[in-house]
Amino acid sequence: MEWEGRRAVLSIATDITERRQAEEAFARQQRSIKLSSQIASVFLISSRNEVFADVLDVLLSALDSRFGFFGYIDEAGDLVCPSMTREIWDQCQVPEKSIVFPRADWGGLWGRSLMEKQTLVANENLRIPEGHVALENALATPIVHHDKLIGQFVVADKAGGYNKDDRDLLESVAAQTAPILFAIQEDARQKKAHEKLEEQMRQAQKMEAVGRLAGGVAHDFNNMLGIILGHADMLLEEMDPDQALYADLTEIRKAGERSADLTRQLLAFARKQTVAPKVIDLNKTVAGMLNMLQRLIGEDIDMAWIPGEKMWPVKIDPAQIDQVLANLCVNARDAIADVGKVTIETGNIVFDEEYCKEHAGFVPGEYTLLTVSDNGCGMNAETLENIFEPFFTTKESDKGTGLGLATVYGVVKQNNGFINVYSEPGQGTTFRIYLPRHRTKEVRWPDKEAIRPAARGRETILLVEDEPAILRMTTMMLERTGYTVLAAGTPGEAIALAREHAGDIHLLMTDVVMPEMNGRDLAKNLLSLYPNLKLLFMSGYTANVIAHHGVLDEGVQFIQKPFSKTDLGVKVRAVLDRK
């Protein structure tokens, strides 16, 4: 153009910096939106097994990176990487395509990123451990949900290195992923807890089924044992010890006694054996067992007794404490190869609801604690899962019945307690038994009669038993001790005999559960005819059945089948002599 006769050039300059920045910001935003959309699609479409790998593929493509991994923090606080770059997986010589990085070993760029919970970039001076894939640069971002570290993204080997845009993009993806990853982990935790609860329920149902089986067979089995033991007793009384069959009969009787013990163990597991609970001081009960327990485990094994102070009372049959300690100490002895140590401790402990929510099997409340520990061979996880099952044993076939710990379990459950076991191979085992604190007014129970030769009697006994073989055998036992026996096979027959009998009847000895009428109701009927009639109940049924009929009330006399002639004689004499 011309201006005042001269040539001139007109220039107009426009500052487009803001526009370019806006365009770049828009491009970054679009990039971030596109990446977020892709990752959201992956979480919606991919299976749980593939989601980590698919998210990582999208991320590597968006950030032009060759290598990387996507990991989460497990319950132990370690970093678990279920997916790394597929090229890296092909190079990894591991059977499971998942690698765990223990928290104690966190190091380098990715480790500092986790520990500091912040994004770190390194485009140079990367110190790569020997054997690691060579990397030129790396970008690591923690995944944080409500200030809690739950995972990490790491990408590496981008041509030209990583810039602020890459950093911002990865942080944005981490923020987007955090609630989804947290939801996945929470779902996995709930599923695991549900599976554990289901397993506990299946185990409880299985043990309850065995308990019902034990209760169902106890009556008939005890009756048969009673016949065997009773006839053996009477034959042995009539034979000279020098006779050839005397030793054989003695062995038969011993076998019968062992069978009766086995039945009692099974019933203890089933939480159905007859018990006479009383309020006890656990320290005194345990202390009274120590000498016997030391003989049981042998001289090569030391026993330490550490009683707690100011112990709370518990209500339990003292014989059950003996049973628990004997079984646990025998197990401890067998777990110790040569010399070793068994420690018995007591104490008081309180569990609140918060603690019990985090510890399966624990129940809120106040408990006395009985602990038995050993430094033996310990148990692996598989053994621990089965130790309370009846007939499960790791001992040789002739060394154990598999009912010892099942008995312990049954005793604890029967007394509304619970048991916790900790063991590791080579590190020993600790059993912790929690029994509820007893707070009500103490009920005094009569001590078990001392076994002594039974005095002969002259009284008349009305014996009622619906099992003919038991009726005949018990009649013979009583008659041989001097008593006059009126034997009845049914309650109706017993009432008829009582009405027809001309003299006194001093004792009614009756089964508890019978056709027509139970033993308790029969006793009420006969007391109207004989107001001074003494009562003795007997049963081979389980304790829950007996308790239902009120037989275990304080002051009611009871004898458990099977019983020996000596036990019967002592019990009958004691009942008759009571004022």
Instruction: Categorize the overall geometry.
Output: elongated
Strand content: 15-25%
Secondary-structure class: alpha/beta
Count of helical stretches: 17
Tell me about the largest β-sheet: 6 strands, antiparallel
Distance between the termini: 142 Å
DSSP strand tally:
20
As a whole number of angstroms, the C-alpha radius of gyration is 39 Å
Q: Largest sheet, order of strands side by side?
A: 5-4-3-8-7-6
- The helix content, as a percent range, equals 40-55%
Stretches with pLDDT under 50, minimum 5 residues: 442-451
Task: Give average pLDDT, whole number.
Answer: 79
Describe the model.
Helices cover 45% and strands 20% of the residues. The chain has helices spanning 17-45, 51-62, 86-91, 108-116, 164-238, 244-269, 282-287, 290-297, 318-335, 353-358, 381-386, 404-414, 468-480, 491-500, 519-527, 543-548, 565-577, and strands at residues 2-3, 6-7, 65-73, 79-84, 99-101, 120-122, 138-145, 148-158, 278-280, 301-306, 314-316, 340-351, 365-374, 418-424, 428-436, 460-464, 484-488, 507-511, 534-539, 558-560. The strands form 5 sheets. It has a 6-stranded antiparallel sheet with strand order 5-4-3-8-7-6, with helices on both faces. The longest helix has 75 residues, at 164-238.
